[in-house]
Amino acid sequence: MSENKTVRFIITRQGSADATPYEETFDLPYRPNMNVISALMEIRRNPVNAKGETTSPIAWDMNCLEEVCGACSMVINGRPRQSCTALIDKLEQPIRLEPMRTFPVVRDLQVDRKRMFDSLKKVKAWIPIDGTYDLGPGPRMPEKKRQWAYELSKCMTCGVCLEACPNVNSKSDFIGPQPLSQVRLFNAHPTGEMNKAERLEAIMGDGGLSNCGNSQNCVQSCPKGIPLTTSIAALNRATTIQAFKSFFGSDQI
């Protein structure tokens, strides 16, 4: 029965960053256990649309194909998510594929996520080390802290939470929930903590915490179930304390 069954895709296409978007429809033979990525691969192998016209292959990003790299994010039936874990059997048809609009479109479903990576640079989302030689074992992290920090470390930098957030757009400088959660993660690290004040100061100005509207779309859309709003609440408290420290010029508060 599945031999005659087809799956219809309506894909938003765009030839270049400056081109006008348009929709193109594709019909594919159904196969059990198909996901969106396998469908896009089939279209790339045989780029013929529903009218029988040969067209150009679809452009999109992918890498690991197991929801680890975060590269294959796109909007599927109106919801930002990973296309590698989007199973055809669980999607309403026709299946609509669109690029995330929080980021500039490069081509078709491929976007430029530079905005997100620039935000990670702004908040210094890494653990600095002194030199390139072996410094020996670092300080241990208490188990209780490690457990919740591990949840934050699951972030794939996929951009789904930024796409879902109504406050992240072309008219706003808001860095979004993902970089904010990374501030909490790296400030919790025993070595990363030495740059804690610097990271908190970075999110206390324009585009930082004050731009969050608490819509909570981010935590609902995160593929990894990261408690993003919990991080934002914790950072509100941490930045308040940091503001007092900065005002009084004291580290004893």
TrEMBL record:
This is succinate dehydrogenase. It is an enzyme of class 1 (oxidoreductase). It comes from Mesobacillus zeae. It comes from the Bacteria. It holds the Pfam family Fer4_8. Its EC number is 1.3.5.1. Belongs to the succinate dehydrogenase/fumarate reductase iron-sulfur protein family. The keyword Secreted does not apply. Keywords: 2Fe-2S, 3Fe-4S, 4Fe-4S, Iron, Iron-sulfur, Metal-binding, Oxidoreductase, Tricarboxylic acid cycle. PROSITE patterns: 4FE4S_FER_1 (PS00198), 4FE4S_FER_2 (PS51379). Coiled coil: none annotated. NCBIfam families: dhsB (TIGR00384), PRK08640.1 (NF006391). Its cofactor is [4Fe-4S] cluster; [3Fe-4S] cluster; [2Fe-2S] cluster.
